[in-house]
Amino acid sequence: MHVVVNAAISIDGKLSTRRREQVAISGERDFERVSELRANNDAILVGIGTVLADDPHLVVEGSYRKRRQDQGLIPTPHRIIIDSRARTPTDAEVLDDEAPTYIIVSESAPTSRQADLEVEGANVMIAGRDRVSMPAALSALADSGMSSIMVEGGGEIIFSLFEANLVDELSVYVGSMLIGGRDAPTLADGDGFIDDPTQLQLTSVKQIDDGVLLQYDVETTASTYDSID
Ligand SMILES: NC(=O)c1ccc[n+]([C@@H]2O[C@H](COP(=O)([O-])OP(=O)(O)OC[C@H]3O[C@@H](n4cnc5c(N)ncnc54)[C@H](OP(=O)(O)O)[C@@H]3O)[C@@H](O)[C@H]2O)c1
Ligand SMILES: Nc1nc(=O)c(N)c(NC[C@H](O)[C@H](O)[C@H](O)COP(=O)(O)O)[nH]1
């Protein structure tokens, strides 16, 4: 499974405000690049924190749909929500019928909530006991035929994927703004690394709109990575 993480941060590393309200950090051209990246992957993945904060739609439009259909693919990629307790609202944008949606829950998710989401057309998968296990989730998605995932955040999900050594590429758009706030979400939250921070190889630096796009390959250690084909 090829995993690319893409996110936009302020110069001080924030994904949004301390109120977790969505901030448009990217400009027009960078959002266009994000659509291209979405269209080039089998699935788009976010955490429940992003769904509750932004109510994202997570689809591609127009020429990207045509191009995918010409390649024999579904018009817009699968949508994946990491949501241990099945808290996704039943009227969430990601549950519309524009694309298949997988909600990955843990064994602690109430069966009634799972059933409510299935009624809305979601494919509910269980991976993990108290919290979603990211290696098990990606393994289950690989078993259902997906081979590439674009992760759009937020900070908790991004850190867990790096912690489990599951990320291959990282692209970060740094917008020319300062958000501040010790409680504002950052690119990678979670517990953080003490020893052994993830090493990245810088592969590209370019200006887009009035910001900078940084692209990295991730140096992965063998273990977890080899087990998910
Ligand atoms: N600027 C950008 O590019 C960008 C992109 C995305 C989001 N955002 C912003 O980021 C904020 C949301 O980020 P967030 O960190 O709060 O939420 P998140 O990463 O989207 O979701 C985190 C939640 O996922 C669930 N989860 C389940 N299994 C997990 C695991 N193994 N590891 C980590 N999380 C797991 C947890 O809730 P449960 O335990 O209930 O399952 C956790 O609270 C919003 O303000 C949004 O606007 C910005
Ligand atoms: N690349 C990027 N630049 C930003 O400035 C920003 N705020 C996000 N945020 C990502 C987050 O996942 C959003 O929720 C979805 O980008 C919304 O997706 P839709 O447009 O509704 O499909 N992503």
TrEMBL record:
<feature type="domain" description="Bacterial bifunctional deaminase-reductase C-terminal">
    <location>
        <begin position="2"/>
        <end position="214"/>
    </location>
</feature>
<dbReference type="GO" id="GO:0050661">
    <property type="term" value="F:NADP binding"/>
</dbReference>
<dbReference type="InterPro" id="IPR024072">
    <property type="entry name" value="DHFR-like_dom_sf"/>
</dbReference>
<comment type="subunit">
    <text>Homodimer.</text>
</comment>
<dbReference type="InterPro" id="IPR050765">
    <property type="entry name" value="Riboflavin_Biosynth_HTPR"/>
</dbReference>
<dbReference type="Pfam" id="PF01872">
    <property type="entry name" value="RibD_C"/>
</dbReference>
<dbReference type="InterPro" id="IPR002734">
    <property type="entry name" value="RibDG_C"/>
</dbReference>
<keyword id="KW-0521">NADP</keyword>
<comment type="similarity">
    <text>Belongs to the HTP reductase family.</text>
</comment>
<dbReference type="GO" id="GO:0008703">
    <property type="term" value="F:5-amino-6-(5-phosphoribosylamino)uracil reductase activity"/>
</dbReference>
<protein>
    <recommendedName>
        <fullName>2,5-diamino-6-(ribosylamino)-4(3H)-pyrimidinone 5'-phosphate reductase</fullName>
        <ecNumber>1.1.1.302</ecNumber>
    </recommendedName>
</protein>
<keyword id="KW-0560">Oxidoreductase</keyword>
<comment type="pathway">
    <text>Cofactor biosynthesis; riboflavin biosynthesis.</text>
</comment>
<dbReference type="InterPro" id="IPR006401">
    <property type="entry name" value="Rib_reduct_arc"/>
</dbReference>
<keyword id="KW-0686">Riboflavin biosynthesis</keyword>
<dbReference type="GO" id="GO:0009231">
    <property type="term" value="P:riboflavin biosynthetic process"/>
</dbReference>
<dbReference type="InterPro" id="IPR011549">
    <property type="entry name" value="RibD_C"/>
</dbReference>
